[in-house]
Amino acid sequence: MILISPLLLAISTNIVTLSVFLSYGIKKIHLSKSNSILLAIVTSASTFVSMYIGKLILPLIDPKVSNIFGAILLSYIGISFIVENIRLEKKRLGYDTSFYYESSFKYKNLLVDPYILNLDNSHNINLRKCLALSISLSVNNICTNFSASITGVNLSISVFLNFIISILFVYIGYFNRNINFSKYLIRYSNFISGIVLIAFGIYEIFV
């Protein structure tokens, strides 16, 4: 049972990683093995820091309150992901999306359009680009990791699983040859992340 929560956390925070690298796989944009490991290290370090901050706050809050509060936060983040997916889908179809909240943070642009890193047509993610992508992925997951930590999710297992799953998703993205599957998952990655996070939040309330 102790593995379920860290596994749900690692999957939900790395679906965007899978989406990015499915995009790169379609366009044959290369990331070296060493940079793949670097990406996993950076995102895992961010997972550790954001969860550790949550753990520092835990002694100040009643365990029942912190668990419910963290679970509500996870569900709220999940809902925001689903709403963002709806916004992007409507924008793609040409509808007016001005009444939706649109993040002004630059890191979001990279995750929505990962081809930004290939404007030079090099088809290669070098060290500088890898760090930019790693930081964007890390920042994107800070709130999720923090929320999970205050529900009592195991920190060390979460960091370990994040490292493994981030590398796994990078290579699934690269080696997947089903273009239709890739395009479908890229298109609905926020929706899928949102569903997983809502399920994660509900699960945390009852465990």
Automatic annotation (TrEMBL):
Pfam families from the UniProt entry: Mntp
Which of UniProt's keywords are assigned here? Answer: Cell membrane, Membrane, Transmembrane, Transmembrane helix
Report the domain of life of the source organism.
Bacteria
KW RNA-binding (keyword) present: no
Q: Where are the transmembrane segments?
A: 6-24, 36-53, 65-83, 156-176, 188-206
Indicate what this protein is called per its UniProt record. Sporulation protein YtaF
Q: Which organism is it from?
A: Clostridium beijerinckii (Clostridium MP)
